[in-house]
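Quick question, first post here. What does this chain look like in 3D?
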Amino acid sequence: MNGWTVPAKDICLLDAKGITGKPAQLGEAVSLKVGDSVYAVGAPQGLELSLSNGIVAQLRGELPPLIQTNTAISPGSSGGGLFDEKGRLVGLTTLQIEGGQSLNFAMPVEWIGEIKPDKKNYDLFAIDLYHKGIELSVTGKLQEAHQEVSSAIRENPQNALAYVYRAHLDARLGNYELAINDSSKAIEINSHFSLAYVNRAYVYYRLRDYEKCLEDAKKAIKLNSNFALAYILYGGSLSHIGSKNYQDALENIDKAIKLSPNLALAYMSRGAVQMALGNRSMAYADIRRAMELDPNSPEVLIAQGACDINFGNLNDGLNYINKAIELDPYLGVAYCNRAIVYLKMKRYFQAVEDSNKAIGLCAKRADVYAIRGAAYHGLGNEEQAMEDLKTSARLGNEKVQDALRKQGIQW
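> Answer (accepted):
Ran it through. Tokens below.
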């Protein structure tokens, strides 16, 4: 019998001879949604083949997600299978948070595919630190989670998954350069780690560096053609690069929906492209579907807010954006969209403040400079308004370029 372990993922892969049992059919954790029924099989207190049932309470972290469930998982059940209603393996039960009520977790089944034979064993102390980081992140303690995962990396600097998870935390904390560096380190350790490419692509997307996002998403798709989030990032980046790419963008996002029909971000992204195409009713239907699937996703809330703004419902749009900022204060697009609302409401000082926040998070946003320029114009500061419009033009805002060109103004 041969075995390979990746304790950072708490998984051991065994190659055993002579087993005649029928293997479990593999499902997808990315296809789960909150409220789905799941079943755990394990050996609590040594009682083999015990079955318990519950629901998916939440999906945590990046895709593929850590599965939070209220399914009973007692000592001895860790490492057992978590199955969906069709009997497909969707996760491996792994831990529970002490002192909580039914706060049990399972690793996504997709992680099994990331195991590389002959990979060396990791230090058990690093595993404990890594798990502490996951627990703290789930409870919203991002800084504490970052410290624990950083400790795990110090104990084992070859832990690719820990780098990816720390990169995810840095992105949520607005530390984008650190997130890129850690994702790159994970790729250096394991060049076939599709999640690391998707993680870095997501950071580039938030920074509006769409060319680099496309490159990483394409690599992830090549490594894992069933990675729905990679298609979303690829399609979303295409849509931002130019209107001629809208159809290709829709095709890629449709692939993501086919792979993961319950993934809110896919419908949100398709809705954004439909809105850009002027298909307002189709856009609204997709964004409403995304809201049904994940009403607490900051990205989805921002999309719903943008949709309301386009329909002239400024107060509703503002409420959705405020909620998104409360959940994720480091999303530049949220401040950009709120600045648009304030601009429409002629609240120019607040529009400038939010534009400054958006620029601080992402200095390459051409549209934000145009928004701030309009706000300065509203305040009567024509010199600063023109400077912002020129900056927007230099960053590639074609509408502003055309307007300045007609006035004979160089940028």
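Strands lie at 2-6, 11-15, 37-42, 50-60, 66-69, 81-83, 89-96, 104-108.
Residues 1-8, 118-131 have pLDDT under 50 and may be disordered.
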